[in-house]
Amino acid sequence: MPPLAPPGRPLPPSRPSSPRLLPPPNPPPPPFPGRDTKLEDTPAVFAPLDAASPRLTLDFAPDAFRFLLFDSLQGLLLFESSDEIQKDKGAMPRFLVLDPPTRRRTVLPPPRRDTVPDDRRWRGSRYYIGSALLSRAHPSKLCFQAVCFAIEEGRPRAWVASVTNGDCSWRALPRDEEAEVDFNPWLFENRGVHAGGKIYWHICNSPRMLALDPVTLRFSYLHGPRALAVDPITVCKVRVGETPDGRLCLVTDGEQQLQLWVRGEGRGSDKGWLLQKSVAELSTLCDMIPGMPSDAEMIPGPRKPTDIEMVPGMPCERTVCVWPSDMDVGRTGKVFIKTWGFGRYSYDMYTGKLERLATKRGKEYGHPMFAYFLAWPPAFLAPDPEPFGDL
Question: What angle do CA 132, 136, 138 make, to 5 degrees?
């Protein structure tokens, strides 16, 4: 930069200089992206897998943007109202159920308080968790059952909605005394996962999952392997799902690896789980993700255990930036990979192929993602429905 002349005096003429070749300056490392560059719970849209997939839309429900997608089962979509509710004060949301192929819809009110005997006694301790679809009676009619549940004084209680062509009736079940919730219910993830004939709710930083049997409507815990524990207070990320042949399985990021555990007994069994394979090193996944910095670029300068405190909001290891967010319910053998600001991906555990999850316009997929299947059998093959009875 030339020197600035004193006020009122012109700059001296610059002397010509011979050209010099200068080494290119070292570019500073790009700013590390935020933890998530896409807001969660954006309005739901269909993303066809291929040209043969039916082109479905939610344009017949213009108010769907006021609801959040919670489940997908047998051609139906379940939403909860996005209105802020006091989950720890006994409040429950409204529900929206859509049948996209037939463009039918129905809105379910929250359960009435009088469905629970002596509701006033339990309401003060009630903490609402989430909802799921239980079953569908007939593809030609909007006949289905849904469930929502809350924690009351350390025990789960479920409410079941039976819907026949828009007519909804709720009934409350007794608190399940066999499934004690001995932790803050805020740690529950509010969306369930259908796998192995049950519905599972993950628990943050826990090797356990709360399971609901759709037939008996009883709650229980599914315990993960001991290897999930990183230390006495930390548990690695774990997601439940099914293998392509239908076996119950877990995907974890334990030991800096993407690991696949399957349900079974035998040599090396860990609480009823067998380590089927170490799918990939997390560092290998990081190498495959465009834009992911190397470990040396994460924090410049000498590495110290306290370096993470030097750059607020920035992890000290790049493997912290990738984790399994869900398994593909379509039994494709793929696991969805979420990253800290570098996009979303699907990873085939059997071929090692990593694919960016983005629309044709380059927009990132949101979270969560649900596999959508048309109801089967189709209406013209299905027998006439029978009315729902008490379970």
Answer: 160
Q: What are the boundaries of each domain within the chain?
A: 33-217, 224-297+314-377
| Residue 270 C-beta-side C-alpha neighbours within 13 Å | 15
Ranges 15-24, 240-249, 291-300, 355-364: which has the least confidence: 15-24
Tokens of 62: 């213009």
Q: What is the 3-state secondary structure (H, E, C) of the chain?
A: CCCCCCCCCCCCCCCCCCCCCCCCCCCCCCCCCCCCCCCCCCCCCCCCCCCCCCCCCCCCCHHHHHEEEEEEECCEEEEEECCCCCHHHCCCCCEEEEECCCCEEEEECCCCHHHCCCHHHHHCCCEEEEEEEEEEEECCCCEEEEEEEEEECCEEEEEEEEEECCEEEEEECCCCCCCCCCCCHHHECCECEEECCEEEEEECCCCEEEEECCCCCCEEEEECCHHHEEECCEECCEEEEECCCCCEEEEECHHHEEEEEEECCCCCCECCEEEEEEEEEHHHHHHHCCCCCCHHHHCCCCCCCCHHHCCCCCCCCHHHHEEEEEECCCCCCEEEEEECCCCEEEEECCCCCEEECECCCCCECCCCCCCCCCCCCCCCCCCCCCCCCCC
CB count within 10 Å of CB 54 equals 10
Q: Which of 201, 208, 87, 85 is nearest to 147 (CA)?
A: 201
Would you say 173 and 115 are in contact if contact means Cβ atoms under 8 Å apart?
no
Structure tokens at 4: 């600035």
What is the amino acid identity at position 205? Answer: N
* pLDDT tens readout for residues 252-266: 998 889 999 999 988
Spatial contact of 245 and 258, defined as CB atoms under 8 Å apart: no
Spell 141-177 as b/e; 16+ CB within 10 A means b: bbbbbbbbbbbbeebbbbbbbbbbeeebebebbebbe
pLDDT for position 301: 45
Q: What is the dihedral of CA 55, 61, 64, 65, to 10 degrees?
A: 80
**What is the pTM for the complete model shown?**
0.83
